[in-house]
Amino acid sequence: MINGVIAQKLQNLDAVLVDLRSLGCLKVQELEQDWRTKRAVERSLQILIEIVIDVCQRILSLESQAPAATGRDALDRVIQMGILGRHDAYSKMVQFRNFVVHRYERVDNAILVDMVNRRLVDFEQFRNEILAYIRRAIHDD
């Protein structure tokens, strides 16, 4: 039952994670001194979160559910369905995405550094939970 759209999005998620990890352990000073790296990090993190939201919306569709009105709602509903575990990190992702999109002029470099250095595993956790859902769905068919 692996959906082609979900598979492609998870591949993109992995590719962005590889790109971010290629930066190594970031430091705040690096982002303060190099606007290109800062923007690349901001955009890459935004893309990762958009993938999370898109996958959740796709799962809702595959499960014959109405589309969610917001990213947070999509995530919450997939959690309620038992497909994703209850992780604070997921709600923080959506919160961060909204901040980057709507308050882009004031993104704190320390938050970006923390996300790259310590929070990329949250995206891997998401991917693993989605793959487990897909395996269960295939097994149940």
pLDDT < 50 stretches: none
Round the mean pLDDT to the nearest integer and report it.
Answer: 91
Range of strand content: under 5%
Number of helices: 6
What is the CATH class designation?
A: Mainly Alpha
CATH topology: Four Helix Bundle (Hemerythrin (Met), subunit A)
Q: What is the succession of H and E elements?
A: HHHHHH
What's the gyration radius in Å? Answer: 16 Å
By DSSP, the count of extended strands is 0
What does the main sheet amount to?
Answer: none
Broad structural category? mainly alpha
- CATH architectural type: Up-down Bundle
Annotated CATH homologous superfamily: bsu32300-like
Q: How many domains would you count in the coordinates?
A: 1
Outline: elongated
The rounded distance between the terminal residues' Cα atoms is 8 Å
Portion of residues within helices = over 70%
Protein model, in words:
By secondary structure, the protein is mostly helical. The chain has a single domain (4-140), classed as Up-down Bundle (Four Helix Bundle (Hemerythrin (Met), subunit A)). It has helices spanning 4-21, 28-33, 35-62, 71-80, 88-102, 109-140. 24% of the residues are buried. The mean pLDDT is 91.
What does the secondary structure layout of this molecule look like, with pairings?
Blueprint: H1 4-21, H2 28-33, H3 35-62, H4 71-80, H5 88-102, H6 109-140
